[in-house]
Each structure stands twice: as structure tokens, then as C-alpha cells.
Design a protein that fits this description.
Largest sheet: 2 strands, parallel
Shape: globular
Strand order of the largest sheet: 1-2
Order of helices and strands: HHHHHHHEHHE
Strand content: under 5%
Length: 187
């Protein structure tokens, strides 16, 4: 059976799998939210499929996205990451990941969980948009602007409004499946 999907996933099996099982599904688990934050950070300026293809490499390189371990990375681990051809070897993004791990734990201390913090911007519920085609999807919104600004104030790096909007889409804070997509009513 042919299913109607959001056009951005095209015919790539990895993209289709991601679209059909993860994208837009509400995530309330801190570990998973941190994983997406890392991946979105590295995606800045690149295509998402590039990140998806390297996702398992990122998982290995960054200790299964364990923010407690990442926050304690030393110079030797930083240099090791810079040499890892399986990930995006961008000094600033690697440093941001280490910085963000520490900031992530600070948010957890203040709010009890990162999930409580991030979902407070939507009152704990996904925002369901009604886009008929991909051209209607914004890259940023006033909400992603607000979250970005607050995260930066808390010491996070590489969390511009576009990165945060993509994070909101990926983690289901907003449902940006087009209305004709079979996943629109499922998430």
C-alpha cells in the first residue's frame, strides 16, 4: 500500500523509517531529548540525512549520548572526537555538545527534568499545525525564538531558533506533518 508522506523524506529508506517512526512523536524522556539536541546541534548548516547516516557513529563517539559522561570530557577526549571520521568533526559543535551537557544538567536541577522545562513552553502538549504542503512550514517561529533565547541565557550553544524549531519538530513538541501525511493523525 502506498502511503502519503511528507515530501522531505523522499525515497531514502533511512529517511522514510525516521519519518514513519520518530519524527513528530512526542518525546518526554530526558536521555532522548538530549540525543536530539546533540544531533540537531551537529545538523546546523547540514542536511538531516547526513546526520541520520552518522547517528550510530555519534552514539558510539558520545558514549551513547550520556550527558553526565559528556559533561566531564577532558582535552584528550575532545581531541579524540576531532579525529573521529565517523562524526562531524567541527570543533565548535563538539565544544558546544560538552557545554550543553553541563547546561542540560543545570536545567534538570532547576526544573526536576529537562523535559519539564522544555515542554513548559507548550504547556506539556504538542502543538498541532495544519500545513497542506511543505512550503508552508516555517524555519522558525516566535516560540522557537523564545526557547532559543532562554536556552542561550542558560549557557547553551548552537541553539539558534532554526535549530530549536527543528528540535521541536523532531521531538513532537509540534506536529508539522502535512495534513495529507498518514502520520499527521497518528502522532
Amino acid at each position: 500500500m502506498n502511503k502519503t508522506r511528507c515530501g522531505w523524506c523522499g525515497n531514502d529508506p533511512l529517511y522514510i523509517e525516521y519519518h514513519d517512526t520518530e519524527w513528530g512523536v512526542p518525546v518526554y524522556n530526558d536521555d532522548k531529548l538530549f540525543e536530539f539536541l546533540i544531533l540537531e546541534t551537529f545538523q546546523a548548516g547540514l542536511s538531516w540525512i547526513t546526520i541520520l547516516r552518522k547517528r550510530e557513529n555519534f552514539r558510539k563517539a558520545f558514549d551513547n549520548f550520556d550527558y553526565k559522561k559528556i559533561a566531564n570530557y577532558n582535552d584528550a577526549k575532545f581531541e579524540e572526537l576531532l579525529q573521529d571520521a565517523g562524526i562531524i568533526r567541527n570543533k565548535l559543535k563538539i565544544k558546544a555538545t560538552i557545554t550543553n551537557a553541563t547546561a542540560f544538567m543545570e536545567v534538570q536541577k532547576e526544573f526536576g527534568s529537562f523535559s519539564k522545562y522544555i515542554w513548559s513552553f507548550t504547556n506539556g502538549l504538542p502543538i498541532k499545525n495544519n500545513w497542506e504542503n511543505l512550503k508552508q512550514l516555517p524555519a522558525t517561529t516566535t516560540l522557537s525564538d523564545s526557547i532559543s533565547k532562554d536556552l542561550k541565557k542558560r549557557g547553551f550553544k548552537f541553539v539558534g531558533s532554526t535549530v530549536i524549531y527543528a528540535h521541536m519538530q523532531a521531538t513532537g513538541m509540534i506536529n508539522d506533518h502535512i495534513t495529507s501525511c498518514f502520520r499527521y493523525d497518528e502522532v
